[in-house]
């Protein structure tokens, strides 16, 4: 009898998780696209609709729920710079935010960053000196990287300034992560410092 009860409890939990994902992901995708196309500065279009000859700003979709805007896409000489592949080592400076579908400004405090421009602000907020590195972070694309960040990095080039917005399943999933509530969409702003 206990086995039947445990099996039913597991089935109910699985069904609830599936229905929750079926509800949350479409809502997050819709809100992300609405933000990028309406509220983001500059307003963006989907890559397939972009007039690249007119240098129109656009976002691309990686996987099914990682939206990426490369601010420096039209920079002179960009095509000759090293490109991030699945076997690259990439060094980035970044700011990571719980995303609330509104513009991220200088007054928006990231939950995690290695940007040296923010070191003093973190210290003033009570961060223990030495507990957090403000050095550029080197990632092995073959290693253990957040799925959404990996997708956002692929195809970037050295020197790119990038914004990546992702649904919760591409970030920390359906569990609480530190101060980030479960099922939170995440935004990563990063500069690709180097690609090996």
How would you describe this structure to a colleague?
- The protein is of the alpha+beta class and 196 residues long.
- The chain is built from three helices and eight strands.
- Strands 1, 2, 3, 4, 5, 6, 7 and 8 form an eight-stranded mixed beta sheet that branches.
- β2 and β3 form a beta hairpin.
- The chain is globular.
- The N terminus is likely disordered.
Secondary-structure topology with pairs:
Blueprint: H1 2-39, E1 45-46, E2 58-62, E3 66-70, E4 89-98, E5 112-113, H2 119-124, E6 137-140, H3 147-153, E7 161-166, E8 186-195
Parallel strand pairs: 1-2
Antiparallel strand pairs: 2-3, 3-7, 4-5, 4-6, 4-8, 7-8
Give a brief rundown of this model.
With about 200 residues, the chain is an alpha+beta fold.
């Amino acid at each position: 009898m206990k086995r039947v009860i445990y099996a039913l409890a597991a089935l109910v939990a699985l069904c609830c998780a599936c229905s929750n994902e079926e509800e949350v992901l479409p809502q997050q995708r819709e809100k992300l696209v609405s933000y990028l196309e309406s509220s983001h500065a500059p307003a963006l279009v989907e890559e397939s609709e972009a007039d690249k000859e007119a240098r129109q700003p656009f976002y691309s979709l990686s996987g099914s729920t990682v939206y990426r805007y490369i601010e420096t896409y039209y920079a002179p000489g960009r095509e000759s710079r090293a490109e991030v592949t699945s076997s690259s080592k990439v060094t980035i400076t970044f700011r990571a935010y719980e995303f609330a579908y509104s513009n991220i400004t200088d007054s928006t405090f990231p939950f995690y960053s290695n940007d040296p421009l923010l070191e003093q602000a973190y210290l003033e907020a009570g961060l223990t000196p030495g507990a957090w590195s403000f050095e550029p972070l080197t990632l092995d694309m073959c290693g253990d990287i957040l799925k959404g960040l990996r997708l956002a990095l692929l195809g970037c080039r050295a020197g790119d300034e990038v914004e990546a917005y992702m649904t919760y399943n591409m970030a920390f999933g359906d569990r609480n992560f530190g101060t980030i509530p479960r099922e939170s969409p995440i935004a990563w702003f990063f500069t690709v410092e180097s690609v090996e």
